[in-house]
Structures are given as C-alpha cells and as structure tokens.
Amino acid sequence: GNGPEDQPELTEDELNEEITRILTANNPHAPQNIARYSFKERSYKPISVVDQMAVLFVLESSLLHEDSDEARRLRVKQGLLKEDGGDVEEAGEEDRPDSSASKADKKEPKLTNQFNFSERASQTLNNPQMERICQTEPPPRNNFSATANQWEIYDAYFQELQKQEKNKEKQKGTQAKKDNDKSKKKVVLTETQTDDLSKVSDASKIFERMVNQNTLDDIAQDFKYFEDASDEFRDQEGTLLPLWKFQFDKSRRLTVTALCWNNKYQDLFAVGMGSYDFRRQGQGMLLFYSMKNSAYPEYIYPTTSGVQCLDIHQQHSHLVAVGFYDGCVAVYSLKQEGQEPVYKSTAKTGKHTDPVWQVCWQNDDMDNNHNFYSVSSDSRVVCWTLVKNELIFTDTIRLSVNGALSNGPEGGHLPTGGTSFDFHNQIDYLFLVGTEKGKIHKCSKTYSSRFLETYDAHTMAVDAVKWNPFHPKVFISCSFDWTVKIWDHTINTPMFTFDLNAAVGDVAWSPYSSTVFAAVTTDGKVHVFDLSINKYEAICQQSVVAKKKTKLTHIEFNPIYPIIIVGDDRGCVTSLKLSPNLRKKPKSKKGQELPKGPEAEVAKMEKLLSLLREPEQSAV
Amino acid sequence: MAGTGEGKKEEADYKRLHSFPLIRHTDMPEEMRVETMELCVTACEKFATNNESAAKMIKESMDKKFGSSWHVVIGEGFGFEVTHEVKNLLYMFFGGSLAVCVWKCS
Question: Per the CATH hierarchy, to which homologous superfamily does domain B2-104 belong?
Fold first, then answer.
C-alpha cells in the first residue's frame, strides 16, 4: 500500500536477504576504451587513465569562514576592517590598485549608492590644432673693418684738434654777429614751431577723415554701391536713402538758409545758417562740409548777422558770395586765413536796407572783374563788382508793384521786395525776379526801366525761381502758397501746377534730366518729380526728418553724384541718395540719345510742353 | 737735453690734449651713442691698467641695457673686420692710445 505502484512486492525472506554492495572510486559509466591520437608516436593510442569523477550537483556557497583569508580580503575590500600591512601583502599584486584606492577612501569616505550609481564618462571635442610659423627678416647687418694702432690714433686726435681750433677761430669771427643772430634764431624757431603744428593739423585732419570713414563705413558703401533693388518691382516710384547727416553743435539753433555745392570739389558744399523768423534774429554762420567728413565742418565762419543766402563762384571756387539778414553782402575767400570776409558792403557802399534773399555770381565783366548780383526785400537788384579791395555797387533794377524803376523818382510806384531771382544760362541779360507779392518779373540787365514780362505766379512770396538747366524757355517757381509751378517764359500762364499740401521751401532742377526736379516742404517731406514719367504726381514723396515738427528749408542736387542735400530749421543738413527710378535715363535707345545728352533733354521737355501748348493754341 | 725737455713737455701736452674720447665711426642713434661713449670712458678710467676687465664691464653693461650679444674689443693696436647689426656699432679712441670697438651681433 504505501509504496509506488510498480514497486515489486517482496517476501520477508527476500527482504532480509543481504545484498553486498561495494563502493569503488570507479565511474561505471566512464568509457573504458577511449583512444586518442598521439602526436608523439603518430598513431592512435588507447588511454588507460580515464577521469572517474562525475559531478552530480554544484552549489556555490555564500558563506565564508570568518577566519579565512578570503573573508579578510573581502572585508578589506569593503573597508570594514582596518587592514594591516600584512594583509595588503597577502592580497597579492592584482589587488594593489584597489587597496591603494581604499587608502584614499579612508581619508574621505565616499559611499556611493550602488543601486542608482552609474559612472559616466564623456570626451569633449579636442580643438583642432594649428601650426603657425612665421619668419621675420633678420635685423640688417653691416660689415665694418678698421685697424687701430698708435699712429692712427695719434693722427685722429691731431686732426680733431686742428678742426676744433679752426672752429674756435670762426666763432671768434662771428662773435660780433651772434647777438643779432640770436634774436633771428628765435624767430626762426617760433616759425618752425608753427610749421610743425600745421603739419600735425594736416595729419590729424586726415586722421579725422579716416576715423569718420571707418565709423560710417556702411554709409560710404551705400553712397558708392547701394542701388535700391526694390525699384525694379515698383513701376515708377523711387525712394531716397538717407546717407550722412551734417550737424554742428554751435549751429544747432540756426536754420539752414542756403545750400550750395562747390563746382570744383564735388564733395564740398556750403551751408548758410541764419533764421527766417524775424523775431529770433541773431548771429549766423557759414559752414563748409565735405562728404568725406560729416562730423565736423571743413571751414567755419561765424557771422554777426544771420546768413540769408550764398553762392560759390563757378570757376573760382574759393570765392563765396554771402547775403545777410542785415542787408550786407560779403565775399569770403577760402584761401584767405581768418574768419573775416575779403569784401563786405557797408552803409556807405550801397548795402541793402533789408534782408538779402539771393546772391548769384555772374561771368566776369569786360574788365575781368568778378561780379555778382543780389536781390533784397528793399526792392533793389544790385550788381556788385569786386575791384581791387572794394565792392562797387550798381543798382540794376528797382522792383515795384506796377513796373520796374531804376534810380528814378518813386512817386506812384509802390516798392515791392524781391525774394529770389535766377539768371538765364544762355541769354546773358535775361533774368527772373520773384517778389514778396507772389509775382515773377522777367527782366533784362540792360533795360532797367521796365519788366519784359510779369507773371502772376503765386499768392504768397516766391521762395525760389530757377531756369531749367537744359531747356532755354522753361523755369520753375515755388512759394509758401503750397504750389510749385513750371513756366514757359513766352507764355504767362503756368504750364504745370503742383500742389504739395504744405508750404514749399525750395525747389531744384536735377542736373541730369530736364524733366526731373525736387522740392522740399515745411512738413519735412522731399518731393521728387519726373515729368516724363508722371505729369501729375511726385514719383517720390518721402519724409526725411527725425522729428515731426522739423521744417525743410532748402534742397540742392549734387552736380555729379546721384545725391541731394536738404537743410532743415534745426541746423541739420541731410544727404540722400536717389534710387535708380528717380534718375532714369530718358530712353534706352543706345547710341542715339546718350551722346547728344543736352539736346535729348531739351527735346524731352519740348515734347511735354508741346502737348500742353497745342490744345491751348487751338482753343485760342 | 733741451730737446728731450721739449719732448717731455710735448708728451705731457699730448696726454692732456688727447685724453678726450674721440668717436671714429658709429651708426648708433644719438642717445645710444652718448650713453655708450660714457660707458666706455667710465670703464677705461676704472680699469686703466686692465683692458680685459674694462671690456668685460662694457660688454656686460651693454648686454643689460640694449639686449644681449654685444662684443667689445679694447686695445692699443689691432685690426679687425666684424659683422654687426645696423645701428649698433661704435668705434672710438680714448685716452690718446686706446681704441675701443663695441658692436652687437647675435
């Protein structure tokens, strides 16, 4: 019953039978007939000794005897036991690094959490190595050879002594003169000193320019190379890119009243500083700036009265005519040192009694004297001639409401002040005068008694009147009555009238196209027109002032570069670059129009005018 | 006898007159030249009887003042041909009988 099912049932005798079993060290399952190849004898050999061990069960122990070597070693490893020297030796060579590590640990035990501790190593990028070698030039060397011996030394001393004696004799001879010389020497010394200073000033001037060009390098690059790429995608309109700003600390409170480029040095221009507000008249200033140095003026001339207008002579570019608020006119020469004008009109020599609004150089007269004209609110147009060191005046015309009158009785004629004028560039005697009443008179230098023509141009004072540089019949005028008008001088109604929505301060024809002109308004905007592109609206209308209330007063085109300068009533002059659309060549027909530039320009203008004239004539 | 007396007097005169330093050849800049000359005079007066020490003193001072590799020759009679760095050579006579040559070449 309790045994397994297949257990044979034995009888008592069988159970009591003794069965002898002998345990031997032999494995009964071990094969007895293993043959292995013997390399020694080069044949298979039966192997007599067979491994008799059979492994039935293996269990690695987890316990150690406390006193055993291994247990001690383990304790050392875990830092539980203070090892003694003997232990380290017993630990054997392979354990040495560990034991030394444990030595270090002893001082500052650091127990790491074995469950969440991991070691991580990373290698940073090694910077690439570079080799740099340079070789300098060896310091220059020279050969020198000589022989030193007693007679050479003696000769040398002897010669030297002779020389000294000669010098002594000379000195004695010149002793008498010496006293005089001394004073002279001093003079020479001071002279050389000033020379040195001026040398330094030249160098420092160059340096100043270099520094300025370095700091404003991007502007210089823009000036030279930048072309507004977006112009291609705009149909007709263009933009103005602000370049340098010219500002001078001492003229911050003055208004820019005049601008003029120098014809010879195209980077140089003159700025007249004064005020248009008659209640705030004071000192003025005449400044010359170069585009190469926007930080500081090239020349500075402080004036006792506000500068109202100026003009640089076309050929003699050092001569600058200036008109003042107090009615004086003066001529400054840039060649002359000092800050006083070379010529100045006085009360004796026929100075104006009211502000001078415009001056303009003329060609030299028959005696080769330089001369210029001026126009003033006192209704006179005066020709000034530079004779030796005097300014000689000739009244050319007296303006009145009804007609011109020169030097004659003034009965019945109300004088009216002139505010602007311009001389025809081809017909020498012909000139235009704009007046305070808004009229423009066409006059002749030779007939002073009457006007050739009077145009009812504006309702307020005429700020500027200018002949077209190409077309001999066309001139432009602008006024504070918000309008710019273009005229054919043979017709006394305007050909074009543009309303700019603000008082117009100044207008200027471009030097490169007969149909392009620009105007500045008191709301701080520059308006650029090209009549050949758009007869009704400006192709560029851009505000260029930093502060809202700043008024623009004057504008000039550079004769060569595609830039304009505009002056404002805070004494600041801004230069602006015209984008490509604002200076399009008339037509792209090559070989036909480009060589005959001026005539093409005249034709272009004529075409525009004829469009306007014909319907008029047919109507008449 | 008188001749010898005169001779002695001449010699004394010669010694007196010819004691100043006389620069025979130099390409040094002014400031350096003056300094070097003064140094040579000092050294030759200090070691009037021992040219070697004088040369040593000059060489060492020059090395300190103007950078290394200076060479100095002092003697009553010698010939030489040297290569020197430009603007670093001074050849002078001193004391009526000494020639001093100072140059730099590294």
Answer: Protein Inhibitor Of Neuronal Nitric Oxide Synthase; (3.30.740.10)
